[in-house]
Amino acid sequence: MKKTTDNLIFLNIIFTVGLVISNVVTAKLMYTGFSLFDNPITLPGAGVCYAFTFLATDVIGEIWGKKEANRAVIFGLIGQVFATLLILLTQHLPAADASMQQTYEKLLGQNWVFVVASLAGYLIAQKWDIWVFHKIRSRYIAKHGDTKHRWIWNNASTMTSQILDTVVFIGIAFGIGFGWLFQAEMRPVLASMMVGQYVFKMLLAACDTPIFYLLTKNTKQEEIVLEEFRI
Questions:
Q1: How buried is residue 128: exposed, middle or buried, by Cβ count under 10 Å (0-12/13-18/19+)?
Q2: Mean pLDDT confidence for 10-33
Q3: What is the pLDDT of residue 224?
Q4: Residue with the larger pLDDT of the pair 80 and 47
Q5: Long-range contacts made by residues 194-198, C-beta under 8 angstroms, separation at least 24?
Q6: Model confidence over 58-93: pLDDT tens digits?
Q7: Which of the chain's termini has less CB crowding within 10 Å, N or C?
Q8: What is the pLDDT of residue 227?
Q9: How far apart are CA 58 and CA 63, in angstroms?
Q10: What's the rounded Cα separation, in Å, for the pair 125 and 115?
């Protein structure tokens, strides 16, 4: 991918759309057929959509640098807050059909606990992802002077940040919001959700590595090294 303004805008769009849609479809749970602690492991519909946000910031960080990656996170936050406000506004407008209103509220109704959990997990995980990505990247470049093994920081940053995202989101939304953290019989369910969802996210992170390499393969090595030491 060439280092152009159009490509940067495109990646920011992918990032923001992936973030907004992941929060819209997060209510759908998928059964995996596996169990942990005698509890079935379920996965949120947001899992696949949200994975694209980490891929987008990794590509932005690799080509345009840490500053632009952080800027994408801020733009994404603004986009998510704006989308939430639009959904709430539409929800409270007069409805011509009561059944359609009920369907809307069931599908798109915003639970404030889930909103807080989502935003908290998002900010913590994305900031960690960018920090780890560039920390490992800068040390590798300082030692080797190239980015041949960029899968190291690509995977290390995403896989560790997904731990934070999973624990923070599920901990707040289900642990505190539903009170499972304070119920002995529900703690194993909470743990199985965290472990199961993290394993799923980790596999997705590994799968996006070839895409990351494909999108960053034409980046000039000289530009990468110089950009790193400007950060």
A1: middle
A2: 84
A3: 53
A4: 80
A5: 194/166, 194/167, 194/170, 195/36, 195/41, 196/32, 196/34, 196/36, 196/41, 196/42, 196/43, 197/41, 197/43, 197/44, 197/47, 197/166, 197/170, 198/162, 198/163, 198/166
A6: 999 999 999 999 999 999 999 989 988 998 899 889
A7: C
A8: 55
A9: 9
A10: 15
Residue 147 has pLDDT above 50, yes or no: yes
pLDDT band at 220 (very low <50, low <70, confident <90, very high): low
Count Cα atoms within 13 angstroms, Cβ side, for 204. 21
Alpha helices in 92-111 (DSSP H): 98-108
Buried b (16+ CB within 10 A) or exposed e, 144-180: eeebeebeebbbbbbbbbbebbbbbbbbbbbbebeeb
For the record, the structure tokens of 66 come out as 């840490």
Cα–Cα distance measured from residue 126 to residue 53, given in angstroms and rounded to the nearest whole number:
9
State the Cα–Cα distance between residues 41 and 30, nearest whole angstrom.
9
Q: How far is CA 117 from the centre of its chain?
A: 13
User: How high is the pLDDT of residue 54?
Assistant: 92
Which amino acid does the sequence have at 52? Answer: F
**The one-letter amino acid at 59:** V
User: What's the rounded Cα separation, in Å, for the pair 174 and 164?
Assistant: 15
